[in-house]
From TrEMBL:
The keyword Hydrolase applies. Keywords: Hydrolase. PANTHER family: ALPHA-D-RIBOSE 1-METHYLPHOSPHONATE 5-TRIPHOSPHATE DIPHOSPHATASE. It comes from the Bacteria. Pfam families: Amidohydro_1. InterPro entries: Amidohydro-rel (IPR006680), Metal-dep_hydrolase_composite (IPR011059), Metal_Hydrolase (IPR032466), Metallo-dep_Hydrolase (IPR051781). Residues 57-389 form the Amidohydrolase-related domain. SUPFAM superfamilies: Composite domain of metallo-dependent hydrolases, Metallo-dependent hydrolases. The lineage of its organism: Bacteria, Bacillati, Actinomycetota, Actinomycetes, Streptosporangiales. GO terms for molecular function: hydrolase activity, acting on carbon-nitrogen (but not peptide) bonds. This is Imidazolonepropionase-like amidohydrolase. The keyword Methyltransferase does not apply. It comes from Sphaerisporangium krabiense.
Length: 399
């Protein structure tokens, strides 16, 4: 049996716009109808279970485009992954997946695990063995020997090895390929954050091989040079996109224009703890790096939401905490919601399955406490979650 969910505000993430006093009818895991409450109620079969939230906002389930379920968000999480056995890691990943669902996230893209554990978790959730969001899994990210996150098992030495690793991921059932185009902050030794790990030719080869096999490519790129190489190669998404040359902020309008014209989505990976991170790196530098968000938006770059959950301080149970930065930067609240729902779904290639409240799509829903178009803080208070038509009541958030 399905269900009827009503709320004081319905945000469908479609061109129809928000509906006051709206409802969604769910049946067989799909959205059967959505619109004004009185109209949808009339379509509900007698005896349909109902869930009423007159003070809430009903919207599509959220999509976190960048997580690492294998990490636990602690300061020594990377060390733990290097030492733990597969079973311990998997159990921790399952717990973190459940916490994501508790927070209203019904789809995640896992962009780096150890040994393909995220693929196993994906299948366990899809098979109903575990509760959690839909998982799009990349498996171990491709990196150079000794490069960023080398210990996850994705080291490749040359173009031939790159192509072979891409083919191996396709054979293993990965949903996409993650390519560490530049270095990062969390791996000692090797390339720095702004330094490229792969040549433009190698990036192009990886993208060519992945696309030949029907796999999208997510490019980790902090450095401006690496961002340019990723855009030129035609990756599907660019992660972080910090625009660094050395330690300097170095945005290039020509590269941003190329990203926009090619429809490449950018996931800036904003942590829910962005305020604490700003204090850590310095308020002035933080403001400079944050300025890239409206700058890219104004140049027509498609932005999507992701938190890098699992890295130190980037927790799994407060996805919407990252939205507050965009609100402070002047992004419209409907745009913020779109970046975490329909826009994210389209960028990940699943817009025909989820990300909107529309007839025939998967019943992935979130009810938040309050008016999310008045403040995105409402989205930090989930009341009710539906994933694939299955209801899930989150535990109360600690005060």
């Amino acid at each position: 049996m399905g269900m009827l969910v009503t709320a004081g505000l319905l945000v469908t993430a479609t061109p129809e716009g928000p509906i006051r006093d709206g409802a969604v009818l769910v049946g067989e895991g799909l959205i059967r109808a959505a619109g004004p409450r009185d109209q949808v109620e009339a379509l509900a079969p007698p005896g349909t279970p109902r869930h009423d939230f007159p003070g809430g906002t009903l919207l599509p389930g959220l999509i976190n485009c960048h997580v690492h379920l294998v990490f636990d968000a602690s300061m020594d999480g990377m060390g733990k992954v290097r030492e733990a056995d597969d079973l311990s890691l998997f159990l921790g990943m399952a717990d973190r997946a459940r916490r994501l669902l508790d927070s209203g996230v019904t789809t995640v893209r896992d962009l780096g695990d150890r040994g393909g554990l995220s693929l196993r978790l994906r299948d366990a959730i899809a098979g109903g063995l575990l509760r959690g969001p839909r998982v799009l899994a990349a498996g171990p990210p491709l990196t150079v020997p000794g490069g960023h996150c080398w210990y996850l098992g994705g080291e490749v030495a040359d173009e031939a090895a790159l192509r072979a690793a891409v083919r191996a991921r396709a054979e293993q059932g990965a949903d996409l390929v993650k390519l560490m185009v530049t270095g990062g902050q969390t791996t000692s030794g090797g390339a720095g954050m702004s330094e490229s790990q792969f040549t433009p030719e190698q990036v192009r080869a990886a993208v060519e091989e992945a696309h030949r096999l029907g796999l999208p490519v997510a490019a980790h790129a902090h450095g401006t040079e690496g961002i340019a190489a990723a855009a030129a190669a035609g990756v599907d998404t660019i992660e972080h996109c910090t625009w660094l040359t050395g330690d300097a902020y170095d945005p290039r309008e020509d590269v941003a224009a190329l990203i926009a014209s090619r429809g490449i989505a950018v996931c800036p990976t904003t942590s829910p703890g962005w305020r604490a991170m700003a204090r850590w790196i310095g308020e002035e530098r933080a403001a400079l790096l944050q300025s890239r968000l409206p700058w890219m938006r104004d140049l027509g770059v498609r932005l999507v939401m992701g938190t890098d959950a699992g890295l130190p301080g980037s927790v799994f149970d407060d996805f919407a905490g990252s939205f507050t930065l965009y609100e402070e930067l002047g992004f419209a609240r409907e745009r913020i919601i779109e970046m975490a729902t329909s826009g994210a779904a389209d960028a990940l290639g699943i817009g025909g399955e989820t990300g909107r409240i529309a007839e025939g799509l998967s019943a992935d829903l979130l009810v938040a406490d309050g008016d999310a178009l008045a403040t995105v803080e409402a989205l930090r208070r989930p009341l009710f979650v539906v994933k694939d038509g299955v209801a899930h009541v989150p535990p109360p958030r600690p005060e």
